[in-house]
Amino acid sequence: MLLIIDDDIAVQTSLSLLLRREGFVVKTAASPAQAFDILDEETPELMLLDMNFSIETSGEEGLRTLTAIRRQQPDVPVILITGWGSIDLAVQGMKAGAKDFITKPWQNEYLLQSIRTILNLSQQKPQSPSRRRLDQQYHFEHIVGEDPKLLDVLETIGRVAPTDAPVLITGESGTGKELIAEAIHQNSKRKGKPFVKVNLGGISSTLFESELFGHVRGAFTDAKSDRIGRFELANKGSIFLDEIGDLDPSSQVKLLRVLQDRTFEPLGSSKSRTVDVRVICATNRHLEEMVARGTFREDLFYRINLITVKLPSLRERPGDIPMLVEYFVNNLRTIYGRPNLRVSAAAAKWLKNLAVPGNIRQLKNIVERAVLLSNSDELEVADFQKHIPLAAALKDPSHLPEVGTMTLEEIEYQMIRRAMAFHHNRVSKVARALGITRFALYRRLEKFGIPYTAED
């Protein structure tokens, strides 16, 4: 049973007809009091809750009702109903435990999609993951590893892939976010449809609308013909929005609108178009911190992260490094026509303790360089060691450059630059990573002329 809580009889009727037509059993309540009378008798599978009732329009009663519902029925998912101008209320509701929000007037297909997704996820019982079982159930053949942290990620994406839930993939650069996004698409009902990848970090704010929503001829000086945008290209399929944390504020507003309504207008056109697309986002930034600083919209954050998966870095799953190296070598045997290519036991053991701040992407580059420049089919420690950057010395002193190739001051300069880049110029974190005080780090930054922003 689904419970609709709304004082507007027209909304009750419209939603009831829609949901009953889809096979749901529906009950309605015109007030919070009526809703709690129903909840005292039975437990619904899901509730649709309006944020404003006739006695007040601030949304406070809706928030109080949501809080009371969460206390009484903490496991029942709630979808909020609000007006576009009251999205701030919906954000407060998401913080209070709601699963999703829709705005009036709603899109029927999007609402049904959200309800089915939430019900599917709430009904599935996760099992203890094993690589063999996961490979039997899903198509994860291009994802290498058996670390429990990685298996938990694969278990999650396997469960959510058949739904249309928006997924946010987080993790450091090079951890394989695009590969996970592709796996979600390939294990979904949309797998035969387009999978469109967009690197938002590489699109300027002036080109954002044209790239994502398209344009019509004459929309701007160089628009000599109509152009289809990425969202329209992804229709019926999935769109992967990488580096979403790099979006500027004005582009965030435009993206929120299409994610909310599934409608957009090509640049230069006044005619709206509807799109049916599954949205998968990724970032190596900390969006929660950006929300707190006001550089990323809170309502957009809640729209894209119904499901969030965090990919572990290689230093969190060192046991997978030999498997990844073997996987890369197997591929390179074919690419470079070297069927006897292999990694020695000593090299495999040494690689397991390798520090790779660039994660899988960096490890792949190291392996490929070693293969290209080695005259032997058996790769030894020395074949890899010569391609290890300075930062890898953090875990193994043998990774340090040869004596005489760099001065101590040059090593210090390089390490500070790498640490600043790795920690996104957060001075306090860089100082802790280097084992010095902030003030000692400030002196070195000034000494080497490395730009920074002082922290309080």
From TrEMBL:
* Residue span(s) of domain Response regulatory: 1-119
Gene3D superfamilies (alphabetical)? 1.10.8.60, 3.40.50.2300, Homeodomain-like (1.10.10.60), P-loop containing nucleotide triphosphate hydrolases (3.40.50.300)
The record, for PROSITE patterns, names:
RESPONSE_REGULATORY, SIGMA54_INTERACT_1, SIGMA54_INTERACT_2, SIGMA54_INTERACT_4
- Fetch the InterPro entries from UniProt: AAA+_ATPase, AAA_lid_NorR, CheY-like_superfamily, Homeodomain-like_sf, HTH_Fis, P-loop_NTPase, Sig_transdc_resp-reg_receiver, Sigma_54_int
Kindly give the CDD domains that the UniProt entry links to this protein: AAA
All residue ranges annotated as the Sigma-54 factor interaction domain in the record? 143-372
For the keyword Transcription, the answer is yes
* Database matches in SUPFAM superfamilies: CheY-like (SSF52172), Homeodomain-like (SSF46689), P-loop containing nucleoside triphosphate hydrolases (SSF52540)
The protein's UniProt keywords, in alphabetical order, are:
ATP-binding, Nucleotide-binding, Phosphoprotein, Transcription, Transcription regulation
Q: Which positions does the record annotate as the modified residue 4-aspartylphosphate?
A: 50
Q: Which PANTHER family match?
A: C4-DICARBOXYLATE TRANSPORT TRANSCRIPTIONAL REGULATORY PROTEIN DCTD, TRANSCRIPTIONAL REGULATORY PROTEIN
Q: What is this protein called?
A: Sigma-54 dependent transcriptional regulator
**Organism of provenance:** Nibrella viscosa
